[in-house]
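Dear colleague,

As promised, here are the two records you asked about, laid out in our usual form so they can be pasted straight into your sheet.

NAME FIELD: protein one
SEQUENCE, THEN STRUCTURE:
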Amino acid sequence: PGDEGYASSWPQALRGAQALTGPVRRIDLSVLYEVARLLYDGPWVAERYAVMQPLLEARPEAVDAVVKRVVEAARAHDAAAAFRAQYRLRELAREAAAIWREVDVLMLPTAPACPTRAAVAAEPIARNSELGRYTNFVNLLGWAALALPAGFTERGLPFGVTFIAPGGSDAALAELGAHWQAQRRLPLGAHLGDASDDEFTLTSRIAAEPTLPLAVVGAHLEGLPLHGQLVERRCTLRERTRTAPRYRLHALPGTQPPKPGLARVDGGGSAIEVEVYDMPQAELGSFLALIPPPLGLGSIELVSGEWVKGFICEPWALRDAPDISTHGGWRAYLGAQ
């Protein structure tokens, strides 16, 4: 029961996502639905019962009848059931984590329908369970989610989507949400009018955890052999840009996979293509351990004048390394071979 216009609103939201983020794909959500069933059919309701037990025993008439029915279902679960559910949740969480090897973020309807008051009154538990169909698994998995407006149905009812990402992705979701709202250009509310550009813009970057901006210049660029090392460490792309015009790029002989070496020069430098990623500081140590000589991390000046950490090369390794600076970057050099 609810507004059938939600079904026709979803394709429009998908088109908006594709315009904002690039290609989208469908994935199997069955493991997430199983996690959600644990929330409603498992022993987690006992946590609510533990809080409400004194009131239920002393003044049961003070509790809403529907809430009382839901919470008292905890009496059907014992300690063994709680442990079994925890073990099952860990199994499902491992399966669900595989989703993030396929996609960066999930977009789902915030709710499958907008039920009428009469429908809720007739079957309140069923209707509320349906409303959480696409989100009930988020808390149990410890993931991050952000609900956003997406438009209106033909009947004028609001339709929304929820972006879901791994735990700790709150900052990235906030930035994605700001871009989404700027793209949709929806009014702030029925009586608040349209939003200004300033209201669609985040005035500062939000940090969910301490990060370090890291410029990569070679095999760690997106689509190249070592980019997976950044993905494994939960790095997020900050920008594609160039160095200040004070660098030379060389093709290092005998490296596998092939790698370039970047060096700052006093004169005759070029602006070299780089990608700047935000790397969680907690991941930096394991990343450093993977960097072979003659490469290392140092400070690099970007074309904007900002200094960030990035890949540099020891001078001795550049003596017999061809200078490929005229290509403007490692990707262009590979494409010319």
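NAME FIELD: protein two
SEQUENCE, THEN STRUCTURE:
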Amino acid sequence: MLEDAGYLNVLRSLRFYVDVILNKFRFASKRINYVVPSSGWSVDWDGEYITRSVNNLLETKIARVTTRYRYLRNQVIHFGSIQGFLDGGYESHKTNRVIVTIFHGDESGDEKGVKFARKHMDRIDLVVTACSIMETRLKSWGFSSEKVVRIPLGVDLQVFRKQETTYVNKRRKELNIPDDSICIGSFQKDGEGWGEGLTPKLIKGPDVFVEAVTRLATLYPVFVLLTGPARGYVKQKLAEAKIPFRHDIVDDYVRMVDYYNCLDICLITSREEGGPKALLESLACGVPLVTTDVGMVRDIINNGENGFVSPIEDIDSLIFDSSRIIDDPQISERFTR
């Protein structure tokens, strides 16, 4: 099923990316400079993977990851996040062609997006986004159809895949996940800043996640598996509710496969998303998915067929859908085929 879904195949996404850039800029000597914040998190991983794969596809060294761009001239600069562009990217030399990835809008509404578009649209040559929700929103902000391109996120199906039961049991034991527990996973950054993350980043829905898990823990032996930086708020609330959990910072992106395969449910409770990657990675690893209606969810999930979709902030629905997966093995089997 996954091989037939172009939006899940990272190679198709990468080829689309290359075709778009080559057709848009028609360059021979320009390099693709993918700008990352060097935070050791998702955007950095994107940059490393995209540039390496583009170089392999083109059989050349045309793309690279960088944190420096102010000295560049007559090149393609791709800001992996809107924040990188706002931190000074709009001042890059006028001979450069500028691409900005915008995964999702501002949680306070579209007014800031409109102001952003009107102020910087002449400096941006191309806006890349991943989902149809954001594609429509960007155009409503004022970006022309010629400047907006939707390139769905992809997942490497050679890396992210369902593992055998013996392998999974071994990994669960290594992570000290109790045999009789229902392991619910949340793999993201959902605290403000890059510190401990005690202040919740509400667009990621950590408050919704904690409330849903806390109520599920009154019904089932729940164990929560967390990865990602700035998870302090969630960890604090889980500890207060006396819900067992484990939190790891995973430096090697490939190791995330082991964490997904340890899950009984991947629970996404965000209010706003561009992907998220957890959506694709959980599907690729055969993990039952319960998610709010954000990002690429409505582009690839048929509710009740390959996952459960709940309205944003609908905790009752998230709990109901999670319970259906736990109580009915046939549902879990259908979702993971």
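A couple of things worth noting about protein two: The first helix runs from residue 10 to 25. The domain at 6-150 is CATH 3.40.50 (Rossmann fold).

Best,
R.
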